[in-house]
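RETRY 2/3 - previous attempt timed out on the joint model. Re-submitting the same 618-residue input unchanged.
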Amino acid sequence: MSIVTSAEATGNGAGAGTGIGAGLPSDEGSNSPLGGPAARFLDLLAAEWIKFRSVQSTYWAVVCAAVPSILVGILIAQNVRSNWVNLSKHPDFHFDALASSFDGFQFGQLVMGVLGVLVISSEYASGLIRTTFAATPQRRAVLAAKTVMIGAFTLMCGEILAFAAFFPVQAIMHGVGDGLSIGSPGALRAVLVAGFYLAVLALIGLAFGALLRHTAWAICAVFGLVFILPGVVSAFPAPWGDRIGKFLPTDCIGQLIAQQPHANDLSRPWSFVVIVAYPVVLLAFAHYVLRKRDA
Amino acid sequence: MIEIKDVSKRYGGKLAVDGLSFTVRPGMVTGFLGPNGAGKSTTMRMILGLDEPDRGEVTIDGRRYNEFKRPLYRVGALLDATAVHGGRSARAHLESLARSNGMRRGRVDAVLEQVGLTEVASKHVGGFSLGMKQRLGIAAALLGDPQVLMFDEPVNGLDPQGVRWVRGLFRSLAAEGRTVLVSSHLLSEMAQTADHLVVIGRGRLIADTGVEEFVEAGSAGRILVRTPYGGGLARLLVAEGAQVEQVEQAEHGMLAVTGVTQERIGDVAAAHGLAIHELRADRASLEEVFMELTEESVEYRASSGRDGSAEVVDAQATTGGAR
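RETRY 2/3 succeeded.
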């Protein structure tokens, strides 16, 4: 049987020969012009991308995130517009056409969170994670590659969805003179942050997946953070409900996509900092744990 | 070369590997044997840096696995053939691995061809039989054309042609000077593939020896003689200083003789005109030796010296010793 020599395989001429004594360090980046640290990380990124795009669940998740994210806002806007005459008589009536564009994102955020979870939990579920870590013992580099890959992908999807959610709703609301343009005050900020928020959820999901290593538990954690916890916290006796609630990602994003800032929430810059802090802290913890644990 | 030095690993309250030391040398197939739960997979995970030993050291060519930046060029391993994402194609699975170690695309096609999966490369792995998954796992191990290869129970699920193919593959990899470690709980399988055996039971080393020596160590040097003149021959052999035992009460009885050589038995029988129908060394089957050595209470420990010859020693002394 013939086996291609690794010199051929690496294409850098520094590979180990087939002879037993030929222990040239083909794995050493320093010996190879192709093997520098930067090139290596790109390799890991490419490997993660291959894994991500080669399973159908990725495509289903994108569809499942897109449909409600775009449709729910449209349906609500249609509803508001058709009842506009009655609604606008009410003295307390206020409709935030900007924030309402993203009403569907509360479903989209969950799907993105699940997508993030699956990027690593599916490897734990199948045992593939051992193959991955055997191929790349630098586990934290693997997690970093997953983070960049899923972060970039969901950021792109998120921004597309945010714009796709914004324009139809505004077109509908123009009919009653309540629509905004992307140039309206705060509109671009809200759209960009709403898209960014979906990537944040994916990264929170990834961190939970890495920490909990079980798909179901990690999905429960994402679900709990964005659906259960806000309800629980709001039930706290005043003023604790507000004091704690304003640090939840759902409240922070609400503050950032609203036309008028909410008095009870954190300021907008702080809301953004808190939103970013969630994935950063969770991923930092995941990095720490990953190093210590047996695979 | 894989070196395991005094390695111990505990999971919760269970000591999975207990003071294990052995070396896997290049140029031969080393069979890694033990009953299920003996610690084979744990040891292999520690070799791959997946699990950290509580004590001791595991090195490959003198270096810890985690030091390798592109380990697939050094070590190829098949741990668990079913550890693949069922929704991914065989090619995508291999491509992601190859890419993570900076390999060219052509390598994937080459190993797919080598293991005979080219036809089904774009099919979902979830539809593969266990045997096909084993081939895929072997393909992954071969990707980097490494000098050190490890296979955990690779024969499971393979059809007879697959088994023959895999044996030939291991032998040719070893013949190319590579280090090949193959685990199995079936000794008969290893007998046909391995040159050297490392046998463990309950996380401890039981034997580190050549296949031949392993069998001889377990057979205690008995010689079996089949003759219609059992009684007469037995008396003559006892007179020669041998210990004789009747082992079969068949029509033509079988004697088990220790203490004299086969030649001497033949000469004695010929000198007295006693016909012998069979005369052979009692080579216990590999399975018998294996069962004996890996019984729950490990009674014997066969270890090989530097010269490779096997000796059977009482293991009670070592098991009773403080660890």
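The mean pLDDT of chain A is 87. Closing ticket.
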